[in-house]
Amino acid sequence: MTVEVEVSTRGLDFETVAKILDEETKQLLIERLAEFAYYQAFFNAPWKTGKLVRSIVTKIEEGEAKLQVLVPYAKFVVEGTRPHEIRPVSANVLVFKAKSGDLVFTRLVRHPGTKPNPFIQRAVDE
Asked: Is residue 97 part of a domain?
């Protein structure tokens, strides 16, 4: 599952601007907007391991640019999660390191959920 935001000439009152810019200049503007959005997303994304940030890419095409986050868990970061239970799937217990550094063994974790972090949309909006 990838999270994707498009940056294009649509919706930015380009009707007026498009009349005075040639195609090459319009494409260059789209590329620069996408580059700016990429850096905004890069610097506003949550950094824990850096994997999410390293998965941010831009794809430039004729008349549009796409900003994507390719890690499978990006949707959960962007949209957040509701409180839920976590149970072991392929083992008898879950094992993880607590904040104290102690190793924890348990059959159930009641996760409180996570708040949405729409860093990609904020990057495009800026």
From this structure: no
Establish if 95 belongs to a structural domain: no
Say if 48 falls within a structural domain.
yes
70-95 tens-digit pLDDT: 999 999 999 999 999 999 999 999 99
Distance of alpha carbon 122 from alpha carbon 78, whole angstroms: 11
Instruction: Give the count of domains, the chain.
Output: 1
Q: Is the separation of the CB atoms in 106 and 68 below 8 Å?
A: no
How far is the CA of 97 from the CAs of 50, 93, 94, 111, in angstroms?
Answer: 19, 13, 10, 15
- Is 77:2 a contact under the CB 8 Å cutoff? no
**pTM to 2 decimals?**
0.68
Distant-in-sequence contacts of 86-91, Cβ < 8 A, 24+ apart? 86/111
Bridge partners (DSSP) of residue 59 are 66
Residue 76 structural domain: 3-80+114-125
Backbone torsion region of residue 13, taken as left when φ is above 0, otherwise alpha when ψ lies between -120 and 50, otherwise beta: left
Q: Is residue 41 part of a domain?
A: yes
